[in-house]
Amino acid sequence: MMTMMMMMMMMMMTMTIRMMTNAEAVYVIRVRSGEAVTMRPNLTDVDRRLVKDVRWTHRNLVVSVKNNMTMCHHGRCELMVDGSLRYSRILAEDEGKYWMQAFDEHGNRVKTTDVQLLVDPVGSSSVLVPTLTCIFLIFVLILIALIVVRRRHRSTSPGTLMESDYMTMHGNRGNKEREEESVRGSGLEAPIPPQEEDIYV
Length: 201
Prior knowledge:
Elements: H1 2-22, E1 26-32, E2 37-39, H2 45-50, E3 53-58, E4 61-64, E5 77-79, E6 85-87, E7 96-103, E8 109-120, H3 128-156, E9 168-169, H4 173-186, E10 199-200
C-alpha cells in the first residue's frame, strides 16, 4: 500500500515537472493580410519521438493529425507533417490566439505552444509612417537650407540694399527744400547752410 502511494506521488510530481517544463511563452507572429505564414510547434527531437497527435485550435478552427482533419474548413490552411500549421493566404479573420497541443500515444499532452497571430490590413505597414515622416523632415531641412543660402547670397551681393543695411537720413530735409524755393522766388542766391551730421537708423 505504501509503495502504491509512493508511486502515485512520484507520477504526480513527474507530471507537474513535465507541465512546468512544457509551459511556453506566447509567440507573436505579425503578417500582412494576403501573405502566407507557417506557425511551428517548436517540438524538440525527444518530443517528436513521443508525439503521435498534434492539434491546433483557434476560434472556429480545429485541425488534428489523429482525427485526420489536416485541412481547414476554408481551405487556406493545413496541418503539415512536422506539426506546423501553414496558411497559404492570411485574412483579417485569422487573427488571434492559436493553441498547439502535442499528445503521446496514450493521449497525454506532451507539449503546448501558444501563438498570437497579428494581421495587418493590406496596404498598411509599420514602416510606412516613419518613412514618410523622414522624407517630410528631409524636405523641410532642404527648404530651410535653401532659404538661408539665398538670404546670405543677397546680403553679400554688391549694390543691393537689405533691410539690415544702414540708411542715411538727413535731419532737416523738408525745411531745406522750402528754403531753396523761397530763395529762388526772391532771385537771391541762397546762403550755404552749415553741414548737418548724418543720422543713421
